Amino acid sequence: MSGDKIIRDPIYYDIHIKDSEMSLIDTLEFQRLRNIKQTGLTYMVYPSATHTRFEHSIGAMHIAGEVSKGLKGVDCDLIRIAALLHDIGHPPFSHSLEIRGYNHEYYTRKIVKKMDIENYSPREVIDVLQYKGPEGSLIGGDIDIDRIDYLLRDSYHTGVAYGSIDYNRLIKCIVLFEDNKPKLGILEKGVVAAESLLIARYQMYSSVYMHPTSRISETMLKNAVIYGIEEGLFEVRDLSKMDDIDLISILRDSEGESNKLIKMLDRRKLFKNVLVVRYNELSPYEKWILINLGEEEIRRIEEELSEKFNTTVFLDIPPYPKISEHRITVLAGERRYRLDEISPLAKNLKWAYMKSWDVRLYSPPDRYKELREKIDSTKLKEILLQFRDRCMESPILDILRREDRIRGRGKLLSIVKERGLSESEFLNELQKLIFSGLIREEVVKVRGIYRYDYSALEG
Where are the alpha helices (DSSP H) in 100-243? Predict the structure, then answer.
């Protein structure tokens, strides 16, 4: 390590950088990340949240190296490089602008494919980024290095008293085991440290990532960019080469709706929240429809409401919370458990996540008082009915309605695969159905092991 360069970091203090890694950091593609904010427009609420994807990527590389030191069969250098490059395809303002089919993972692979990486081929790095091999499990597992760094870093830069993780203890308890393929888990003695990760993420989710003002600001920015694309200012793929400064400059110099919205953001003249529909106020069918709506369908709903009230209205449907940490495998001797099987905290936090999710409707500030008295959830729910037939298609739900109850996730997966769903599609749809309340997942203890049973619920 004596010949390494050192980057000073507020979270980990000294981060050692090898020459091979420095050559990647110094590329134009990676330097672009200096001007892409990690948490989008969160700085509209927390002024110091101006940290970027640049330092997060370096921090993720550091955590990857620390974790891999204790894992046999893991190429430490390869996982550090993959972690360093894992966000290189992000659009300006990070996840705020994953719109019109933009997928940062796709553009990351596209950029990495053209990079000159010392000692490794681009294909080897891309395989890790696609979660292949033991190194891939560190990037995309139930507990991954990306999440550890962004929680610590976002907490530090927002200044909130959340996001505290006993990460030194946690990374020492991470182990690699075989379960058809290499998979990450934790030792039983690391359960409390894993719970600290759960608590940190829940608190950051509810108080920072889902803050009402951040959501309004990002909805306005997202629509300004959509208008910009429709006005011919740029194409979706151009976002992979732009940073925050490029994008804002183009929108400020434009005319039309995109310019109006960005000027409002510049003056912090934000849209107002005229309607909140909370998780418990929606039926399972309504929740299922909402989380399955595509961008064009959301646009149709906005246009219908905008025409009715003669003003611009934006509908904000956040992604449903994917709470994969609750599935962390805990190794206790010869037995394996899911974290939420043995941790009451993990089990209860799962439901707390769901119930903190809501749908919001925004209007221009000068129409706020008027529309707040006119708009209620009834009109929105009536509009949703027109999408019911298309959105209600679900192979898993069809199977459970026919079978009444299926004992064991493996059995349900095997039946679903016969219907043409892959394992990843199965897990994604299963999560959405559980979130919506259309199916029930029950944990049953059978001869010392846990089994997951599934049944359909009436909507």
Answer: 104-112, 122-129, 133-140, 145-158, 167-173, 191-204, 212-230
